[in-house]
Amino acid sequence: MSKFGRILVILAGLMGADGVILAALSAHGGDAALLAPASSMLLFHASAVIGAVALAERGLIHARVGLVATAGFVVAAFLFAGDLTVRHLAGHSLFPFAAPTGGTLLILSWLLLAVSAAWPRPA
Fold this sequence. Notes:
It is elongated and about 50 Å long. The chain starts with a helix and ends in a 5-residue tail after the last helix. α1 (3-28) packs antiparallel against α2 (35-57), α1 (3-28) runs parallel beside α3 and α2 (35-57) runs antiparallel to α3. The chain is built from four helices and no strands. The protein has one domain (3-118). It is mostly helical.
C-alpha cells in the first residue's frame, strides 16, 4: 500500500471513531439534532475512503485521480461534520459556509471518483 493510501486509511479510522462518538453523543444528549447527520457523514465516508483506497491499490481505478477524490472525502467530511459539531457544542459555525463547502466538496469528490473509474489507468 502506498504511503498516501496508508495515511488515508488511518484518517478513515479516525473518521469512523469520531462518527461513533458523535452517534453516542446524539443518542444520549438532549437536543443533539446536528450530531446525527455529522455522525452519519463521517461513518459513511470513512467506509468510502477505505473502499476507494482498496480500488486504487488493486488498479481498478486511476490511482492518482482516485486518491485525490478520496482525500477530498476526508477533508469534506471533516468540514461538514466539524461545522455541525461546533454549532452544537459552541453555538457558532466553524467558519461561514463550512458545511455547504464540505457538502459541495463531497459531491465533487464523488464525481472525481467516477472519473477515476472511467479514465483508464496508465500502462
